[in-house]
Amino acid sequence: xxxxxxxxxxxxxxxxxxxxxxxxxxxxxxxxxxxxxxxxxxxxxxxxxxxxxxxxxxxxxxxxxxxxxxxxxxxxxxxxxxxxxxxxxxxxxxxxxxxxxxxxxxxxxxxxxxxxxxxxxxxxxxxxxxxxxxxxxxxxxxxxxxxxxxxxxxxxxxxxxxxxxxxxxxxxxxxxxxxxxxxxxxxxxxxxxxxxxxxxxxxxxxxxxxxxxxxxxxxxxxxxxxxxxxxxxxx
Length: 235
Description:
Mean pLDDT is 87; it is low at 1-7. Helices cover 71% and strands 3% of the residues. It is built from 7 helices and 2 strands, in the order αααααβαβα. The chain has helices at 11-29, 34-54, 59-81, 89-114, 121-148, 166-181, 196-228; strands at 153-155, 189-191. It has one domain. It is an all-alpha fold. The termini are close together.
């Protein structure tokens, strides 16, 4: 059977579209008003819940994923409902939960790819989704580092004021994570002290390992599939 229970053809293409839309719209809309931010975060929570049926293949995985994402949803709600005197607790809760949930999702994607005998275009998109989720997972430790040790980063004066707002801060550290993962390093925000140093080199190493393992698996499966003359519908 080519499609497992709870999954559908083209599922990763829909997830990829949702992730790209989220990354594009967050810095443009999330900060404009409390209502806009709340709507955006509700959509983001819905996208995370949709991953249950796209990435996780068993009820046990989905139950664990729900346990991991629940604190992030709670923290997101608290950011809009509790007084500012509550401090960083809601945001810390959100980011710790997102690290665990997204890391679990990336692990599930890699495991699914390594367990395949035939590759399809949707599997390639799934690997791309995993790469995006890896960057998003790493953005949370960067954000936590900044919240507790702002001096760990050198921030351009052109963007420093944006770090005071919840959605813009998330977008900036998403940007830092993507540029680090792809070893671009444009320079608007730069790690200059621990723990940002360690997070940076760890992300580069994990990113390179992900690319090496996943791309090697995809290429190997494609070559084996071509030699056997198998179509993408067989498994």
